[in-house]
Amino acid sequence: MAVTDTLNKGLRKIPAWLIYVVGAAYAVWEFWRALNQIGPYLVEPINVLERAYGEVALILMVVGLMVTPLRQWVGLNLLKFRRAIGVTAFFFVLAHFLVFAILDVQSLERVWTEIVKRPYVTVGMLSFVMLIPLAVTSNNLSVRKLGAATWRKLHKLTYPAAVLGALHYLWLVKGFQIEPIIYLVVIIALVATRYVAIPRKRQTAPS
Amino acid sequence: VGLGAIGLAGRASAQGLEPNTLEEITSYNNFYEFGTGKGDPAANAHKLVTSPWSIKVDGMVDRPGDYALDDLLAGLSVEDRLYRFRCVEAWSMVIPWNGIELADILNKVGVQSGARYVAFETVVQPENMIGVQRRVLDFPYVEGLRIDEAMHPLTIMATGIYDEPIYNQNGAPIRLVVPWKYGFKSIKSIVRITLQEDEPPTSWNKANPREYGFYSNVNPNVDHPRWSQATERRIGGGLFAARQDTLMFNGYPEVASLYEGMDLTRFY
């Protein structure tokens, strides 16, 4: 209790926009390393960059989905960062898609063929498309215009988008690989917490 | 045989084949026994114990046995072969191999008349192979060729790259190279060669028969369910490398006669 209080107090001092700054800086840093073929980008920078952006997007989706359960069960309040986490996740999905389309596949026609013909690309694309309205409405004006209830309903699209993102990863790897399975299991578990009744931690405990 | 090698190399350079650097060839690999990341084999394969090395030759051969590697290769000529190498993941390299024609090795052990296929097996050293511990595939890795594919002069057993002993991550101390097939057919770190009558099981076919067939010839007209095979990216072009068209049989049309009359969409 004392620990989460201290943490919450400290977190209040951190501005949410820092997440955009760090996210953008990281994306540029990875691109710069890919361009100069440094480290993991030494031999084949295109696929490595594509995967790096995709993986950050998945990690951010997991973190975004953890905000509510962390608040309910641990009392850790990350709510004010959630929008920035979600929007940054969207930008990494967008960057992932752009690397795929422009640097990897290199033609609109082939991009379309890939989306239609390859189920793992189809589900990845579906996830991306679901995230677009969420990114567009991630501002206070949209919350007011849509009304809180409608806005919340719309933003439940996060759940299928995250599951499809993890499925996309699992589907594209070869053989039995543990990492994508972990992402999928964690994301499904986090989504499940929304639908399974679990005793909540009291928010207004007297101190 | 030497003239043939010069001929092949000469034709390759006439086609403008520029070999990839040793650094590229030795740091971007698929060798799932050492992990699934492209850099994992380079990071982990130093654990592979390659000396002493022996190869069990069995099945329908006149002189079966456990051969020390040097004994098996003694008296056979090592040739330089500059080959395209095309991965099923739609990337490719050009690699200057040093190796022995598989036909020379098979003739040395004496193939019996009933043998129609050659089966190969990769070493398993569980304590040294992180991918084996994680059961990424059903190990040992196994592969196979039809006997006419195995005897084709393009098919070699490579022991070197750029006149250096082959690196562990590339399949030390000896691996198969079949340049007109997807890379996973070119099985690494071989410890067993079996001549047999029946088509042998192959690892990727066992793992996913819908996606990987026995033949796995490079074919731009037959897509892998998850990757288009029409184009490929040559490793080494950097972040803005253009794709190039994939060639039928990876640009080795001389093997087409091996598959005459076969429906290559069925026998993929």
Share of helical residues of chain A: over 70%
**What proportion strand of chain A?**
under 5%
Number of structurally distinct domains of chain B = 1
Structural class of chain A: mainly alpha
- How many runs of DSSP E, i.e. beta strands of chain A? 0
Uncertain spans of chain B, ≥5 residues at pLDDT below 50? 1-7, 9-14
Q: What name does the CATH topology of chain B carry?
A: Sulfite Oxidase, Chain A, domain 2
Anisotropy-based shape of chain B: globular
Mean pLDDT of chain A: 93
Euclidean distance between termini CA atoms of chain B: 31 Å
CATH homologous superfamily designation of chain B: Oxidoreductase, molybdopterin-binding domain
The largest sheet of chain B is: 7 strands, mixed
Give the uncertain stretches of chain A in residue-range form: none
Mean pLDDT of chain B: 93
How would you describe the oligomerization state of the chains in this entry? heterodimer
Q: Rounded to an integer, what's the Rg of chain B over CA atoms?
A: 17 Å
Question: Would you count the extended β strands of chain B for me?
Answer: 12
Order of helices and strands of chain B: HHHEEHEEHEHEHEEEEHEE
The total of helices of chain A stands at 10
Strand % of chain B is: 15-25%
C-alpha end-to-end distance of chain A: 10 Å
